[in-house]
Amino acid sequence: xxxxxxxxxxxxxxxxxxxxxxxxxxxxxxxxxxxxxxxxxxxxxxxxxxxxxxxxxxxxxxxxxxxxxxxxxxxxxxxxxxxxxxxxxxxxxxxxxxxxxxxxxxxxxxxxxxxxxxxxxxxxxxxxxxxxxxxxxxxxxxxxxxxxxxxxxxxxxxxxxxxxxxxxxxxxxxxxxxxxxxxxxxxxxxxxxxxxxxxxxxxxxxxxxxxxxxxxxxxxxxxxxxxxxxxxxxxxxxxxxxxxxxxxxxxxxxxxxxxxxxxxxxxxxxxxxxxxxxxxxxxxxxxxxxxxxxxxxxxxxxxxxxxxxxxxxxxxxxxxxxxxxxxxxxxxxxxxxxxxxxxxxxxxxxxxxxxxxxxxxxxxxxxxxxxxxxxxxxxxxxxxxxxxxxxxxxxxxxxxxxxxxxxxxxxxxxxxxxxxxxxxxxxxxxxxxxxxxxxxxxxxxxxxxxxxxxxxxxxxxxxxxxxxxxxxxxxxxxxxxxxxxxxxxxxxxxxxxxxxxxxxxxxxxxxxxxxxxxxxxxxxxxxxxxxxxxxxxxxxxxxxxxxxxxxxxxxxxxxxxxxxxxxxxxxxxxxxxxxxxxxxxxxxxxxxxxxxxxxxxxxxxxxxxxxxxxxxxxxxxxxxxxxxxxxxxxxxxxxxxxxxxxxxxxxxxxxxxxxxxxxxxxxxxxxxxxxxxxxxxxxxxxxxxxxxxxxxxxxxxxxxxxxxxxxxxxxxxxxxxxxxxxxxxxxxxxxxxxxxxxxxxxxxxxxxxxxxxxxxxxxxxxxxxxxxxxxxxxxxxxxxxxxxxxxxxxxxxxxxxxxxxxx
Length: 807
What we know:
This protein is of the alpha/beta class. Among the domains are: about 255-315, no CATH class; about 400-530 and about 560-600 and about 765-795, Rossmann fold, CATH 3.40.50.10540; about 630-715, formyl-coa transferase, domain 3 (2-Layer Sandwich). It has 30 helices and 24 strands. The strands form six sheets. It has a seven-stranded mixed β-sheet, sandwiched between helices. Helix 5 (about 150-155) crosses helix 7, helix 6 runs parallel beside helix 21 and helix 20 (about 540-545) crosses helix 22. The two termini are about 50 Å apart.
């Protein structure tokens, strides 16, 4: 007999969607997938996404754009005319009976003064009010114009990981990824707020900054790196090697994230003489030096041959996937990674996480404009629940939650880090024979005292956590682990699936130890399918999901973003975990959450498959141009950067005709810009090369700060392409307190990024303790489990626990 599916965790949660654009729509889609009742409020002309196609497909007046149809699944649509005298009555009726409102600027309805986030919070204090804005609701930049492209520039994400060859302009990550990740953070923040004081009738204002979401997603703790290592991650841009290369029959990607993987690559391509473990050299520099030989080896073989060999050698690898190829990939087909839109029939990604028991609502048909207006007008509007008086100290959202963090590198720790910053007790598990890989990538020589405690990346991802070392390959280690699991509410792990299989720690085993445990598994490619055991790092996930395909110059091979694959997986795993926590709160039952990194990436790259399936259009990379603005590009300035290089740029993106008028005025209305053919987006796109030439000449004579001040004051979206270690100097970032200082006992004092959200109920400070030293809490945690000093000493003597790496 087939078990009855569990009720979705957010059933009964009413959400009013006052947002416009991808970020808000994706936030409310994730809530709708979790069972929330989402009512989208639109002006009579409808959300602009109804008319949107990244490929320029013509949307008939009676139809909706495919991207809108994907994002609007399972929602309702209500039309409100802001010009009518009683327009707000229906909106306030919806708000009075809702639990959550998601807001972003840009809609004629949302832009009404009575519907600002602050005013909604004041008049409807029972609501969780989630605001999504470019820079946050307060601060010196709160009203500045911005696009996803200019936010990438301000974040340091364009130049920070050296994306692009040094003889060309750096390139942004294609596909408006910052909007998607902002939406995922907004959904997680919304559910976090609801879990703080469930049933209290007390809401709060949740203030998300998209700039800070970009910083979290496109850069790798560069400010902490600068403070602790006293140098930037890198000074000169370069292509990642081996990276993307042309095989006989297509593009393939290979990567080396560790020294062992580089040595294996040397052996695979027939050059074992390159391996010299006794010599100190940079893997990246050596790979770059030998790039021509490696690429020649790749060019002589087919994609299939290369992937088979690389997998055998355990070298991270992937085909370079695009919107046309993705649905046909054997792995995605086996896992049913794509499903049909329930109304329009095109292919769209399945949800980014899977559950046991099944917790998600199957997608329902998206609404036509205003189809629920009449029924919602007639709906009884219950009185909102009474608001409890504020207590002296507001409870942190995850107070009392104990989490066993069996993750490493970036994706898994970024998920659990938010839990630790919001009150959870997070125990980070390592082994002295295999410490967290981020301890090893700081470039600190092993001759330096306690070199493994000096990694800025580890420090940035693990503040507030406790550290336990335990070798789970031993019988003693597994026995202690089972005793620890019995005390934990949540276990998060991101090993390849075979690791836990080999030590017998599957979900059923955990349930026997702790029946209500929530287990979050974050494998790269999922728990099944042909690629199940493939090595997965951020760049491989980006290659496989299409994020790489849209990044780079049109006349060159695409380049890997080398960034978003990990943190994007982390925030999506957090969303899945929050749904499971809500399920347990309601039912007392645990759950298994499978949050594969590639499923999260396929969701933020959704537009590629959707456009190809719906319109037979293949989206292509276009350097720094994009479908949402024209002109849009990076332009060189007269500055020399802080490293003495001519590598200073500004990002300009004109998203509306009004902004084009503002740019013309700021330039002094030159004759070339007054051409009436440039008054529309289509006209500007047709003359993009000419506009780029003119803006390049104008910018080259000016410094970046002068350009930004002049254009921004005029109302043009513009951004300085920041060196990422300068993020903390941005006035808006300083105002919001996004960075906090901590003293680390070995690494010293440094600034740490927090999270892209401010909660009106706090906390005001997120970092309480620095990242733990390796095994720092061994005695404390083992004693809690009942082990005696003699037993702990025996474990130390046997190497099961310890305080320093053994290799």
